[in-house]
Amino acid sequence: MTTPTLPISPTRASTLTTNLTSILTRISSATTTTPKNPIRLVAVSKLKPANDILALHTPPHSHLHFGENYLQELLAKAALLPQTINWHFIGALQTNKCRPLAEQVGNLWCVESVDSVKKAEELDKGRGRLWEKDGEEAGKWKGVKLRVCVQVNTSGEAEKSGVPPSEAASLCRHVREKCARLRLQGVMTIGAIARSQGVKAGEENVDFLTLREVRDTVVRELGLQEGELELSMGMSEDFESAIRCGSDEVRVGSTIFGERPPRQDAKVKEEVEEGKS
Ligand SMILES: *Cc1c(COP(=O)(O)O)cnc(C)c1O
Fold this sequence. Notes:
By secondary structure, the protein is of the alpha/beta class. Helix content is 40%, strand content 14%.
């Protein structure tokens, strides 16, 4: 693999480094109990250029986990960036995009937005095709299971994806028992931002409490070990509350990378003008 040529201006690199440091500090301050594993920060880079990602993936941070929402954008960025990145697909998932997603991005670390049996099966098939491929490149991923989270619509908002809480256990069971090339990592919610904004001191967003209950129910119904299923919850506005509710993974975008451009203006790769760094 060739070294990517993705210029980054020192000013931009320094802004990103400062922002990431600040989020990591806030994560550790919000962590009052000692978690089994450190809380994972997924830096949500959707609609932001690959240059920004590379800046954080290189020292001093060497950050590993990045989140994307759109298949085409992820494919383009994954092709430009080192395979040492652990990609997370966190966006609304379309059934017909599942196979290419699981097949074409070997270093896809987790698909967090699985909300139907059909989508789980398509991801499983896609991963199977990747395992069958020959050659040194594809060979690296042979036998490497694709992690998935079941997305739960804890707020009941019509525009949010996810299964209702009552259907989470059966989808989780399906993934574990019928999808040999997937590994059930946990459950995920977005939650209603209004609920995070509306909580008073000492209270938490009920969506986070609901997801924790869903997780505990799934663990019980499927006879899993305690701690076997993760909670992926918390974004820029509410990750500290999510951590207080037991989140294992937070997904933070705009507080690290700044406001996102409208989708039609987003650039996969930023050209930095000569002499203008
Ligand atoms: C965009 C997005 C995020 C990050 O949102 P910010 O508010 O920018 O931190 C997290 N999770 C999901 C599912 C997203 O789509």
